[in-house]
Specification:
By secondary structure, the chain is an alpha+beta fold. Helices cover 38% and strands 17% of the residues. Helix 2 runs antiparallel to helix 4.
Length: 175
């Protein structure tokens, strides 16, 4: 079987990570895979903010938790030490689609490097707040951006989950 298709079939969302930080090289490769995602009309109107600073990562997790309505102490990033936040230009009418392709590439790249990952929502709500708009400004990011998702990445704590059986009757051919 083709290695890319095999990775697509084997990749699963991970919900328990070790605290160990992946290498900068691995993080960079995951981000690079996202940069090569297909984009409508070649606009490349998606950016990634890589958060490896534990203090900021924990603040982001707590803000995400509050938005999600979970109790104190819950970590919506499941302990992942790296959070890759995908944002798309608000001026792009296809921002959600382009950002989703970036997320998909990064999830697969993490798997291919032996790391675990999971897509976590609520980036949209976070980056509508002044706090995270100021973070972008501090990083030198100009323009208006919409949060698409978080790619939480790290080493898997435990066994890699197996795929659930695929539901039948989901493909229809028109010959």
């Amino acid at each position: 079987m083709n290695d890319i298709i095999k990775a697509m079939e084997e990749r699963r969302s991970i919900r328990k990570f070790k605290a160990d930080m992946p290498s900068k090289d691995d993080i960079d490769q995951i981000i690079e895979a996202g940069l090569y995602a297909a984009s409508g009309m070649g606009r490349q109107a998606v950016i990634t903010v890589a958060i490896t600073n534990k203090k900021l990562r924990d603040e982001l997790a707590d803000d995400n938790r509050k938005i999600g309505g979970w109790p104190d102490g819950f970590d919506p990033f499941y302990g992942a030490p790296v959070i890759l936040v995908v944002l798309a230009a608000k001026s792009s009418p296809i921002r959600v689609y382009d950002g989703s392709l970036v997320m998909g590439n990064m999830l697969l790249a993490a798997h291919s490097l032996g790391l675990g990952s999971i897509w976590i929502h609520r980036a949209k709500e976070e980056f509508e707040t002044d706090k995270y708009k100021q973070l972008l400004k501090k990083l030198g990011v100009e323009g208006e951006w919409e949060g698409i998702g978080h790619c939480a990445v790290g080493y898997i704590d435990g066994d890699r989950p197996q795929a659930a059986p695929r539901k039948p009757n989901r493909v229809f051919y028109v010959d």
